Amino acid sequence: MDEAVEELCGAVFPSLRRRDQRERGRQYVRGLITVEGRKSIRNMAHQTGGGGPAEEQALHHFIAGSTWEWQPIRAALTRYLTRAAPLNAWVVQPMAIPRGGEHSVGVGNRFDPYQGQMFQGQQAFGTWFTSGGVATPVGWRMHREGDPDESYESCALAGVAEIARSADGGVRPVVLDVPDIATRATVSRFAQARVPLVARVGAGARMVPVDARRSGSGAVPMTARDVLQSVRGLRAPLEWVDPDRPGARQSSLVAGVRVLFAGREMLLFGEWTDARRQPVQAWVTDLTRAAPAALLRMTKETGRVSRAAGTSLGRVGLRDFTGRSPAGWHRHVTLASVAHAALWQSGALTPPPTTPPATPTT
Fold first, then answer.
1. pLDDT value, residue 302
2. Contact indicator for 48, 27 with CB cutoff of 8 Å
3. CA dihedral 309, 315, 317, 318 (to 10 degrees)
4. 350 pLDDT band (50/70/90 cuts)?
5. Residues in Cβ contact with 19 at an 8 Å cutoff, skipping those fewer than 6 apart
6. Which one of 157, 204, 310, 334 is at 20 to 30 Å from 92 when CA atoms are compared?
7. Distance between CA 306 and CA 135 in Å, rounded?
8. From CA 195, how far away is CA 123, in angstroms rounded?
9. What SS3 class is residue 260?
10. In which region does residue 343 sit, left (phi positive, over 0), alpha (psi from -120 to 50) or beta (all else)?
């Protein structure tokens, strides 16, 4: 583990120009990995620096009061990961961080559309690198309720296209696993950035089948559910690996159809787990020539992200930051992302594959 931490920190910390900052960064990453239980600054100072008020204060200042920028470290982490393993897709997913009290940045009573329930805490969005069964985050954004300069949608999408375009090895699709975010503005944003998009849509999202419009039989908008049910005769079987049951394989049915949605021609595809019932998921993409089976398999990366967010992120204390400083929160989650990647690099998470994934045809 020490070797993986040293290699990764050496690759992502060049933007920290002072040697003492780079050492503090390594100390913080080691603490996130080795401290049992809650990853408080006090616990990490005691575990990795001998403890004492001076050591604790220095580590606290490094996170909450220093001036180093976290974005260059995230960019370096992205480059490191895309060089180390073949990227399947980027996944954007919301993450609720339950937290009581009012002493931490961004805490409030919120509705989590991903879980469909109210909670008290922080609402964050993560951008994840996925490869061969592994998911590890590279970017974070916190939604602060009442911020007049940033809506829920703009917060979820901030910097995502830039991450996708900056990665080595070519531009890979972004899978948006965020409810109700596939709007005209979102679709246009990714089209202008020339980043392929795969976005979840609700069953009631309205669209027009392209064939119906071209044939003159009618251009009446239909719901995604009804459009998919109209092409259920085209469904094909698909096997995929269940991220919640390593090694287990599941089967679904998938079908796709071209539609006019958000002002553009796109491919709507859906998944059925029971041929007699309604589709359980619906997605739209601008990869209109891609096979629906390949696209549905790509969306299964969202399950790996959800699993990592619920398990391995806890091992590096990503949710453990307490404090009023937004900059402190960003520095903490950035270093927690580095620590998570170090777990992956050391083999503590599923190792990356040795062959690159197939790229859906545009």
1. 93
2. yes
3. -30
4. low
5. none
6. 204
7. 9
8. 25
9. strand
10. alpha
Locate 19 and state its tokens: 């040697």
Q: What is the pLDDT of residue 103?
A: 65
Phi, psi values for residue 234, rounded to 5°: -95, 5
Mean pLDDT of 159-171: 87
How is domain 85-307 classified at the architecture level of CATH? Alpha-Beta Complex (3.90)
How many CB atoms are located within 10 Å of the residue 154 CB? 15
**Residue 216 — very low, low, confident or very high, per pLDDT cuts 50/70/90?**
very low
How far apart, in Å, are the Cα atoms of 65 and each of 20, 22, 47, 229, 346? 15, 16, 21, 56, 31
pLDDT band with cut points at 50, 70 and 90 for residue 215: very low
| 245 has pLDDT over 80 | no
Contacts (Cβ under 8 Å, ≥6 apart) of 186: 153, 157, 176, 197, 199, 262
268, 259 contact by CB (below 8 A): yes
Assign residue 218 a region (left: φ > 0; alpha: ψ between -120 and 50; beta: otherwise).
Answer: left
